From TrEMBL:
SUPFAM superfamilies attached to this UniProt entry: Snake toxin-like (SSF57302)
GO CC, any one term: extracellular region
Signal peptide (from-to): 1-25
Keywords annotated in UniProt: Disulfide bond, Secreted, Signal
Protein name as catalogued: UPAR/Ly6 domain-containing protein
Domain of life: Eukaryota
Subcellular localization: Secreted
Keyword Membrane among UniProt keywords: no
Length: 211
C-alpha cells in the first residue's frame, strides 16, 4: 500500500513539473511548416491552424500555422465564408494541451455545395455591396452573412471588403461580437475591423447550379 502511495505521489509531482511541448511554425504552405520547431511552451495550450482562401491574393492560398498560446487566447472552430466572384475564406483552429495537435482538415473542397443558398455580392469597399445574385452555400456554411470592413492576415496587407454570402456558424458567432471600429485578432493570425456584420439562417436552394 505504501509503495502504491509513493508511486502515485511521484507521478503527480512529475506531472506538475512537466512542461508542455508545442510544435511551432510561422506561416507555411499546406502540409509544410517553415521554420518548424518543437519547444517548451510557457503557456498552457498548443494552437494549430489551417487556412485556405483567395481573399488576400489573386490566387488560392493554403497555409499551416502553429504556435504556443494562452488558453484564453485560443479560439477553436471552423471560421469561413463564401461569397460572389468565387471569393472565399476559411480557417480551422484546433486548441490542445499536448504536442499532438491533430487537425483533420476541412474535409470538403469549397466548391462542393450543400442544399442552402444566400444573397451574394463582393466589393473592395468597407461599407456595402449590392446583392446581385444568389449563391449556393458550401457544406458547413449554414448562415447568410453581410459584412463590411477591413481584413488583415499576418504577413499580408490589409484588404477592404464588403460582401454578402454564406458563412459558418463559428464565423458568424465570432464576427458579430467584434467591437465595431476596432481591429481585433483571431488567434493572432487574422484580424478584422468591422463596420457592419450581421447573420441570419440560410434558405433552401431553388436551383442546382452554383457560382
Amino acid at each position: 500500500m505504501k509503495a502504491l502511495l509513493c508511486t502515485g505521489l511521484l507521478l503527480a509531482l512529475f506531472s506538475l513539473g512537466a512542461t508542455l511541448q508545442c510544435t511551432t511554425c510561422q506561416y507555411g504552405l499546406k502540409n509544410y511548416c517553415e521554420n518548424r520547431e518543437a519547444h517548451s511552451c510557457p503557456a498552457d495550450t498548443c494552437l494549430k491552424g489551417v487556412l485556405d482562401n483567395n481573399i488576400f491574393s489573386q490566387y488560392r492560398e493554403q497555409f499551416n500555422y502553429s504556435d504556443c498560446v494562452d488558453s484564453q487566447e485560443c479560439h477553436p472552430g471552423y471560421f469561413g465564408f463564401a461569397t460572389a466572384m468565387r471569393k472565399y475564406f476559411r480557417v480551422k483552429f484546433t486548441c490542445c494541451h499536448s504536442a499532438a495537435c491533430i487537425e483533420d482538415g476541412f474535409g470538403m473542397h469549397p466548391g462542393r455545395y450543400g442544399p442552402l443558398e444566400c444573397p451574394a455580392c463582393f466589393s473592395n469597399s468597407t461599407t456595402d455591396c449590392e446583392s446581385m445574385t444568389a449563391r449556393r452555400c458550401p457544406y458547413k456554411a449554414t448562415k447568410c452573412i453581410t459584412f463590411g470592413g477591413i481584413m488583415k492576415q499576418v504577413g499580408k496587407s490589409e484588404v477592404a471588403a464588403a460582401f454578402k454570402g454564406c458563412a459558418t456558424p463559428d464565423f458568424c458567432n465570432y464576427i458579430t461580437t467584434v467591437p465595431k471600429g476596432v481591429m481585433q485578432s483571431l488567434n493572432n493570425w487574422v484580424s478584422f475591423n468591422v463596420n457592419r456584420a450581421a447573420c441570419f439562417d440560410a434558405q433552401s436552394s431553388s436551383y442546382t447550379s452554383g457560382l
